[in-house]
Amino acid sequence: MFESTRQATRLDAIEGRYDGWLVGVAVALAAFGVVMVASASIAVAGNLGQGPFHYLVKHVVFLAVGIALCGVAMRTDLKLVEKYPRALLAGCVLLLLLVFIPGLGYSVNGARRWISFRVANFQVVEAAKVLYLVWLASYLVRFRDEVNATWAAMLKPIGVALLMVLLLLAQPDFGSATMLLAVTAGMLVLGGGHLRRMLLPVALLLPALVVVAVVEPYRLRRITSFWNPWEDQLGAGYQLSNALMAIGRGELTGVGLGASIQKLSYLPEAHTDFIFSVIAEELGLVGALCVIGLFAALVGRAFWIGYRCVEMRRHFAGYVAFGVALTIGLQALVSIGVNLGLLPTKGLTLPLISAGGSSVMMTCVAIGLLLRVSYELDRAQRQVARLRGEGARAPGGEGPPPPPTTQPPPSAVAGVRGTSRLRPRIEPTLGQGPLGHGRRP
After folding, report:
1. 333-348 burial code (b ≥16 CB/10 A, e <16)
2. Which of 160, 248, 278, 345 has the smallest C-beta neighbourhood within 10 Å, fewest atoms?
3. Where is the region Disordered (predicted)?
4. What is the DSSP string of 213-272?
5. Spatial CA neighbour of 261 closest among 243, 273, 239
6. Which residues, 6 or more positions from 330, have their beta carbon under 8 angstroms from its beta carbon?
7. Are 271 and 284 in contact (CB under 8 A)?
């Protein structure tokens, strides 16, 4: 008994390490964003009568706040986060309702998506997305047997997502609503939901999304202008046509940093939604591919970390990593696709690069959660290595102890819900169904 207590104490004293690749890629994206915001926002600030570095200073301040929040997330134990799923869900709904409170909600161009803090405005959906992905990760851990086997457990998160979508459409924010549904579907598949069973909700939701997209005249104009922006170049296709001209001017190596012409009052939102077009114009195909490569490295590393966590039965940490990867990856994909004319205009920023306080800060929080996942994964791996090493050195022993996936030690690999949750469970199947139903054991 005393020996096991001493062993547990030694394991708990082991520290983990944050993933160096994640840190490097995130820092590279954030630093690149500072440079491009400085280049893309000078003309915008001048037209509004502000100083040339007005938006750059704001961006750097928000980035500094985001880094501080990232540090808090990195030092927060995931067990503590997982303990309060109801609070996370209530926070999502409450944040989306705050914008409708008179005096607190703030409208821009007819969209009521922000709350005012006097010194700055905050877009609440950015925080709601982070809280939601953590809640969904917690839900998939608590009900991963049922999500795979029953309709009710699978439909519950879809129902929560639909409630949030209704609140987003009331603002209105069709882009974020679509993103939320896509992240929900992706996490359900990665968390063990049966792919064929999910086809029915998808088949019912797609026509509804199409109706919502075309019922508003401004959304319909965006879709039709996306098909052929040159047909109404000075009207509905103005944004996309100027974005495509900027990308075309960049050619292979670009016109040079700071030398963009389209950002000089021709390209709307050059420092936010259409900053990728400025990157392509000033740095060319080479710069655009570098940005895409950095996002691919970040998202791919996040998925790999999540997969490793699931292998070690650290399901909550793994699902959080999946959620962060899906959120950042899909938002980057949509933002770049809009700039390239592959998708209709959605009003989504490029994570860590576009100017925008809410997006920058909450993306930093998501990166902090991801780094915490990598820290706890590394610590668990070190604890397992220590256990195996001590087993191999034990006198009279027959080799190292069995892997923790069979009998996980509480401090190393056990679930955060306690030993009562260590009963056999259906593992994530990536949509292929449970064992015995089309899968090899």
Report:
1. bbbbebbbbebbbbbb
2. 248
3. 391-441
4. HHHSHHHHHHHHHHH-GGGGTTTTTHHHHHHHHHHHHHTTT-S-TT--STTTTTSTTTTT
5. 243
6. 179, 182, 183, 186
7. no
| Structural tokens at position 101 | 């409170």
Whats the size of the chain, residue-wise? 441
Cβ(81)–Cβ(380) below 8 Å: no
CA 139 to chain centre: 17
State if pTM tops 0.90.
no
Task: Please list the pLDDT of the chain residue by residue as tens digits (441 residues).
Answer: 555 565 556 666 677 789 999 999 999 999 999 999 999 988 888 877 788 888 999 999 999 999 999 999 999 999 998 888 889 999 999 999 998 888 788 777 677 888 877 777 888 999 999 999 999 999 999 988 888 778 888 889 999 999 999 999 888 888 888 899 999 999 998 887 777 777 877 777 778 777 777 777 766 777 777 777 887 777 778 888 999 999 999 999 999 998 899 888 888 888 888 999 999 999 999 999 999 999 999 999 999 999 999 999 999 999 999 999 999 999 999 999 999 988 887 778 899 999 888 999 999 999 999 999 999 999 988 888 877 776 655 554 444 444 444 444 444 444 444 433 433 444 454 544 443 333 333
CA proximity to 411, closest of 438, 440, 384: 384
CA–CA distance, 317 with 137 (Å, rounded to integer) = 8
Q: Count of CB atoms within 10 A of residue 425's CB?
A: 15
Q: Where are the domains of the chain?
A: 18-95+131-382
Total Cβ atoms within 10 A of residue 268: 14
Please report which residue ranges of 312-356 form alpha helices under DSSP H: 315-339
Q: What single letter denotes the amino acid at residue 271?
A: H
CA 174 – CA 249 distance, rounded (Å): 31
C-alpha 410/C-alpha 419 separation (Å) is 8
Residues 423, 427, 429, CA angle at the centre, nearest 5°? 165
Using CA atoms, how far apart are residues 337 and 331, in angstroms rounded to an integer? 10
Q: What does residue 343 show for φ and ψ, rounded to 5 degrees?
A: -135, 155
104: helix, strand or coil: coil
* Strand ranges of the sheet holding 111-116, from the earlier edge strand across to the other edge: 105-108, 111-116, 121-123
In whole angstroms, give the CA distance from residue 242 to residue 245.
5
Please state, in angstroms and rounded to a whole number, the distance separating the CA atoms of residues 330 and 350. Answer: 10
